[in-house]
Design brief:
single chain, 476 residues, alpha+beta, tRNA-splicing ligase RtcB, nine-stranded mixed beta sheet, six-stranded mixed beta sheet, globular
Length: 476
Amino acid sequence: MRVDIIGRPNRPDDLTVFDSAVMPADPALLDRLRDGTATADLAAPPVVLPDFCHKNKSEMPSSIAVATRGSIRPTLTDAALNCGMALATLDIPKPAVAAVSDFYRRVRERFPNPPGWRFELSRKEVLRAAVEGADFAVERFGIDRADLDRVEEFGRLPVDELGGAVRARKELPWICVQLARLRFGTIGPSTHFLELQEVEEILEPEIAGRLGLHAGQVTMQYHNGGGVLTGQIGEMYARRKSASRMLRTEMALAKPLAHLRAGGLADARRRYETYFRAGCPSIPVDGDEGRRILLAQRLSMNYGFAYRLATYAMLRQFAREAFGARIRLVVDSPHNSVYEETVGGETAYVHRHNAARAWTPELMTGHPAFAETGQPLLVPGTNRTSSFICVPAPRAHRSLYTACHGTGSIISAFERDGRSGLDPYGRRTMNFGYSDADHQDVPQLDDKGVDEALGILSGNGLVRPVARLRPFAVLR
C-alpha cells in the first residue's frame, strides 16, 4: 500500500493517490484528472481513492475528491448531485424465501422500471423538497424526525442566505418543476440496487453497539439517485456528457430562458460561455452569479435528501407488510456532492465524485448520533461479495475526509484475471430483476477484491471497518 504525494501543494499536477502494488491507479486516468484540474484554483492536491475508474457518462474519473478555492467546477462531480446510499437494520431474523420474494414484488410494483409517468408530487411540493430537503420528507411521508440524525447534514443545506424559496421559484424553470413531479423515490436498475444482508462479522464491537449493529442482524442497503430535478439542475448549470436526448430537448427550451433573459448582454455572453459550451469552466462563487450557482447546488442536494428519504419511507412500509419488521436507519450519505468545508484552515469547496464524506468525531462534536464514532460510511462490494460499514479513522484528513463509495472495479479486476474465484462456502444471492420472472440464485465470490480495497483504506488510516455484511438477496 502506498500514498504518493507528487510535487508540492497547489500545483495542478499534484495528486494524492491511495492505491496498492496489487491495484495501482491507472496512469492514463491520473493524467485525465490532472488535465481536468489544471486550471482549477486548488486548495489541496486532488485525491485518488481505491475503485478509481472512469464511466463513459462522466467527465472525470470516479472515486476522487477535489477541493477548490472561491469557485465551483461542476464537472468534478456527477451531473446529478446527491446520488447516494443508505443502510437500515431490521428487527427480525433472516426471512424465508417466500417473504423475500413478496418484499421485492412490492418494491417492483411501487417503483417499476421503466418508471412510467405518474405524478408523485405537486409543483409546490417539488419546490418545498428542494428548499426544505429532509424536513419536507418528514412531514410528507411520516418519517420519524429522529431518523434525520442519521442523515448527512441532517438532510438539509441552508438556502435562505442565497435567496431561499423566493429565488428558487424564480430560478427553477416551470418545465423542470413539472417534470420533477414524476418518479419521486425510486430505486432503478444499473448500478442502483436494493440489497438484503446479514451482519456476518463484527470487527469493532463498541462502535457497532453505538451504531445499533450486532452479529446475525438483518440489514437493508440501497443505492439510488437524487431524482429528476438533480439531473435537470446539473445540465442547467453546465453542458454535461450524461444528458439524455429527452433532457437535451427540455434544456433547449428551458436553459436559454433561465440564463439569457435576465441581465445585460455581457451577462448573457458570460453565461453562454459558462453553461452552454463544452468544457465547463470553474464558476466563481462571489457576487450574484456565485450566489445563484450555490443556490442551485444546494437545491439539488436538498431535493436528493428528500428523494432518498421518500424511498426509505416506502421500504419501511414494505418491510412491515412482507416481514412484519420494523426498520431503523443507520446512515444515509451522498457520494456525489459539493460542500463548503475547511481545508488548510480556509474555506474551500470539496467536490466528491462517487466518493463518500468521512468526517471524524472531532468534526462532529455535539452531533446527536455520531459525536463518538464520526459519520459512518458504507464501503460496498457487490451483490456477490461482502460489503462493509466503516467509520472514519484518525488520518482521514489525508484524503480530504473522503473514502471510495464502492469497490466494484477492483472486484471485477480480481475475478477477470483469476485472483478471485467462487466463494469457498458456496453461498448464493437471490437476484431479482424488474420483470415478473422468478429470481435467480447467483453464486457468490470470495472477498479478496473487496478486502484489497478495504485494506488500502484502512492501511492508510482513512477508515476503520466496523462490520462485514453478507448479501442474501438483491434487486438490481
